[in-house]
Design a protein that fits this description.
By secondary structure, the protein is α+β, with helices and mostly antiparallel strands. The chain has 5 helices and 8 strands. A hairpin with a 2-residue loop joins strand 3 and strand 4.
Length: 180
């Protein structure tokens, strides 16, 4: 995706609870909406993330659009989800990317993670990405189940690699998916 491309693609996602959201590419105009989403997320929703997410970190993401496949989920003009594949720019990592998903707590367990992952993987395939990797905290069983559903394989464990808000170290599961 090029940063100068006008956003024209949108997709509807029908959630298990009857709500609908629009999935679309992140744009530079979404900075405030994305910050609002992260600022309104509960500690529980952010517990396995690298929070806090400041305006500066969001601006770094937006300034890196050429190296991203970034999606937002929007409902009633509010961003309620952000999912992204970071495409490594170095030639030796051509076609390799890392995936991350963040969902507002009001959109957990309703199929939004599934819809966003499915769309991201379709876009990655269209962009001829070769491999997508991700990391997930071992205790985040819902995320592990989601990623396994899409064919991600456990490739290893990083022991005690995440210091949680509970004051304890947790294992990180490394997962990967070969697209081509």
């Amino acid at each position: 995706m090029r940063s100068d491309r006008k956003v024209v693609n949108t997709w509807r996602a029908h959630l298990k609870d009857g709500r609908q959201v629009t999935l679309r590419f992140l744009s530079i105009d979404d900075k405030d909406k994305l910050f609002e989403m992260f600022s309104s997320m509960s500690e529980k929703a952010l517990r396995w993330s690298m929070a806090p997410y400041t305006m500066e970190s969001i601006e770094r993401w937006i300034n890196n659009l050429p190296n991203l496949i970034p999606l937002v989920a929007e409902q009633k003009a509010r961003v309620v989800g952000y999912a992204v594949i970071f495409k490594f720019p170095h030639q030796r990592r051509k076609g390799i990317g890392d995936l991350a998903i963040y969902l507002h707590q009001n959109f957990h367990n309703v199929g939004l993670g599934t819809a966003m992952t499915e769309r991201l993987l379709k876009l990655a395939t269209k962009e001829k990405m070769h491999r997508i990797a991700l990391t997930v905290i071992k205790e985040n069983k819902i995320a592990l189940t989601l990623y396994e559903k899409f064919g991600f394989q456990v490739e290893g464990t990083s022991k005690d690699a995440f210091y949680g808000p509970d004051g304890k170290y947790h294992d990180i599961i490394n997962m990967g998916l070969i697209l081509h």
